Amino acid sequence: MSGFPEWLPDGRVVEQHVLDSLRRTFELHGFAGIETRAVEPLSQLERKGETSKEVYVLRRLQDERAEPDASGTEDGLGLHFDLTVPFARYVLENAGQLAFPFKRYQIQKVWRGERPQDGRFREFTQADIDVVGADTLPFHFEAELPLVMAEALAALPIPPVLISVNNRKVAQGFYEAIGLADVEAALRVIDKLDKIGSDAVVESLQTEAGATADQARAALELAAIKGDDPSVADRVRALGARSELLDEGLDELVRLLEAAQQASPGTVVADMSIARGLDYYTGTVYETTLVGHENLGSICSGGRYDSLASDGKRTYPGVGLSIGVSRLLTRVLGRGLATASRPVPTAVLVAVADEADRASSDRVARSLRARGIPTDVAPTAAKFGKQIRYADRRGIPFVWFPGEHPAGEVKDIRSGDQAPADAETWQPPAADLWPRVLGQDEPR
Amino acid sequence: MSGFPEWLPDGRVVEQHVLDSLRRTFELHGFAGIETRAVEPLSQLERKGETSKEVYVLRRLQDERAEPDASGTEDGLGLHFDLTVPFARYVLENAGQLAFPFKRYQIQKVWRGERPQDGRFREFTQADIDVVGADTLPFHFEAELPLVMAEALAALPIPPVLISVNNRKVAQGFYEAIGLADVEAALRVIDKLDKIGSDAVVESLQTEAGATADQARAALELAAIKGDDPSVADRVRALGARSELLDEGLDELVRLLEAAQQASPGTVVADMSIARGLDYYTGTVYETTLVGHENLGSICSGGRYDSLASDGKRTYPGVGLSIGVSRLLTRVLGRGLATASRPVPTAVLVAVADEADRASSDRVARSLRARGIPTDVAPTAAKFGKQIRYADRRGIPFVWFPGEHPAGEVKDIRSGDQAPADAETWQPPAADLWPRVLGQDEPR
Hints:
The structure is a homodimer of 444-residue chains.
Chain A: H1 9-28, E1 32-33, E2 39-41, H2 42-45, E3 56-60, H3 61-66, E4 77-79, H4 84-94, E5 102-111, E6 123-132, H5 140-154, E7 161-167, H6 168-177, H7 183-190, H8 193-208, H9 213-223, E8 226-227, H10 231-237, H11 244-263, E9 268-271, E10 284-290, E11 300-310, E12 315-324, H12 325-334, E13 338-340, E14 348-350, H13 358-370, E15 375-377, H14 384-394, E16 398-402, E17 407-412, E18 418-422, H15 430-433, E19 437-439
Parallel strand pairs in A: 1-5, 7-9, 14-15, 14-16
Antiparallel strand pairs in A: 2-4, 5-6, 6-12, 7-10, 8-9, 10-11, 11-12, 13-19, 16-17, 17-18
């Protein structure tokens, strides 16, 4: 079934490691974990006019059988297609019990009702962080959040990432300053720069965004500006356009680049050609590529929005980014960028000499587990050679042969070394205790 | 929206603790974690004739709009209603790459398309462990798995549990020995014993299961037998019925009780009145109640099945149990059986004296986080009193006032104690480092 990625146990070890690592970084930065239900009312899912997102609608099988011709669902429920819409609903629903600014992370599956033949994910995991304020949210969060993500991604067994940023205020301020009124249309055209090239962009800005030839060339010059230091702002200003909004945007961009240079040099670059997202975000926007895997597209995107939600009395501005965990993991596992040292948690297999004496092996296992050593007991009292093969097939490094409890012998089946050991005190090397996740060039 | 439980951040801390704790116990016992997609073909979901389960069918919103009258889904997909059906499919699909016996745990949400007005969960989390063999699976796993669950549940901040067991072979062997042919019907009647009482059961066994009055009384006598030691088998034998299957079942029951008495005395009890599940399991069955919360029903159930799946060449017998995490958690949180020491991961809030000097506070935060201390920075350079209230509202125990880096002062806002500290070396007390989950009677 295409579009629904699923991993064998060794792939799941890598996925679990990635999820644990993300969670740890998010929590070190003070983000509280929440989980929302997978299901939202359709009215909520369509609230933002997100008609481009394919939604799965739910229907009770019993209802469908009873009234096969009835359209719609009894109560109009659908699966969430991202974690932002449910988070907005959660914030409104619980505003009275949350403390703002509220920093949350959320790692969950989302679903999109794509056509099966399109080869897109129909179920995938996202890992989001957002900060939302009540009525106001200081700019500094726009500089901090991409750095949290940079740290989170740097802790994963993946190639380095490059976070590209732009700012709605720069694009809008610039376009308005040069008299290019249809900002949205201009952004849509600029977004195609990579695909259609400069000449076609200049042409389209005139035919689709109502630009003059000069305006089109200026917009193109803006889009060509990239860089990871404050001189980016000077190069934009050198194009000659002036407006308060543009200045504000450039100041923000510079503050972000300065913070990034201090915390994580070389990770963040300003890129004035980034247009995707600028149409609905209101400040900084982010896209992230995996160095050497740019064709994968953005693995972590987001931005600043002035109104995540509003309940009539209060407005909740926010800034957030979302990692496409499944997209990332499919590449990591597909290319062997990271692998698990073994597909099972087990560090020790306790052998069973005789089925009548299984209780002795169980006792050894209890001693080892009580000290935090993941342990399995052989399923049958087969010949020891077969029991060792059981361990070997699963990558379990040690086999324990019980003697007079707690004495026994433990064999490292990789080296063949066997030595007497005490089940109450023996420890495997730390590196063997739990499965490890190894990058491409790490020794096993 | 009823039936879709969702927690505030402090509840999520408890839930996450429960999930982490379960995972750790399962992994210490050598179970490999897997995750399956939430979606299965309807044909798979209905394969077992599980018509009693309410399934949510998926439909692409776009298709529904295009053809509102078309019944069914383009590709017949539904949300899984348990983790056993998807696991069976996963085993068959990946049999060539799995090593058997295969021990897996799986912690995921499941969905049931109940009517909203029924007040039942429509989305909830289950935590399952299963062992499946290829063609054979030794009995000892039936004795081990409930003990893994007993250990997993004992590690949670909940009251003690009682695991009740029965064995299909005992019931079936007994009924057959006394000539009661319609085993399924008899089990259905016995299952109502609590509700309708002895007299009505004797009556119904005759009218619904074709029993004679003597057979009905004998079945009732069997159902009355309970106990946590091997004498249970003697009491069953004392009823006079004899058959090979009955003997096999009683031997298994005794082995299980003996193993339980050794590993976890007082946790497992044989209860011959348990009938639920016996109709589709083939050996031991399990139900688990929370002591003092029996009205909650079973929080962990399962059993032995001779054929989890079959691909024509091979059959995969298994034994497994499933914890109803959401059911358990709703009670735990609803009754305050466990609470989080704070709703955020943060141990330290770094104060900001002046917005222009935010970088100093960020530097302190980086030092603390680099040593694994979850740290937040004040959102604004408000008066210190307000910043302390920010920490207080979130239960953050420490506020850091930066000085000449790495020197500063740290205040325990609970005691008011403030002392000089070095951001490169200071450690909070271990108990304050991460949120803790406290049982009802534990001091905060």
